[in-house]
Backbone:
């Protein structure tokens, strides 16, 4: 092999190596610091989705659970309603009166605690990226972290291979799982629930 061919191969290998290094640095920068924020034009043309970049905590109370439609008849001996769920407060379980798929995503902890977002679309994306439906800006959230999709009348949660994972009721999500109403979902430092 001639010296010229060997030199060209060395330079080609070095260029390929540097291309891989730059690709890795770009991916890490994007994952650690998020995608650059795009400014919206002031001419009134807003995108169809309004992401939450950061919101101050509000004092808005979470919606109360729907009452049970048909009260159970109390037992004559004990005075306790038969067939009614027993809770510490003596009331019905939160999901007892709900029907159909949840219609709101309510943030319970995090920067935007107390915020309620309507689930208007069949696919709801979550992450740091500005094109996500719900934008969560914290260092524990990946650019494209998770997805909620309406399937067969219920919302299904899928973790999109995020770095720090997604937790449903404290258990790490490893495959697509249905999300029952009033079950906490934790992404980074933010926790939310799906509510009717």
Residues:
């Amino acid at each position: 092999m001639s010296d010229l061919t060997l030199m060209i191969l060395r330079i080609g290998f070095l260029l390929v190596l540097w291309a891989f290094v730059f690709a890795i640095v770009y991916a890490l920068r994007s994952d650690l610091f998020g995608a650059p924020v795009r400014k919206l034009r002031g001419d009134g043309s807003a995108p169809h989705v309004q992401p939450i970049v950061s919101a101050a905590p509000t004092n808005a109370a979470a919606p109360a659970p729907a009452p049970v439609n048909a009260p159970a008849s109390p037992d004559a001996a004990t005075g306790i309603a038969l067939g009614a769920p027993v809770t510490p407060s003596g009331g019905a379980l939160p999901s007892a009166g709900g029907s159909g798929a949840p219609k709101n995503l309510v943030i319970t902890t995090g920067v935007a605690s107390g915020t309620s977002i309507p689930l208007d679309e069949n696919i709801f994306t979550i992450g740091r990226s500005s094109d996500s439906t719900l934008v969560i800006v914290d260092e524990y959230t990946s650019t494209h972290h998770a997805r909620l999709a309406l399937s067969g009348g219920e919302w299904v949660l899928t973790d999109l291979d995020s770095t720090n994972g997604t937790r449903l009721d404290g258990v790490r999500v490893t495959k697509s799982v249905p999300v029952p109403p009033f079950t906490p979902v934790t992404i980074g430092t933010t926790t939310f629930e799906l509510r009717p």
Summary: The first helix runs from residue 3 to 33. DSSP finds one helix and eleven strands in the chain.
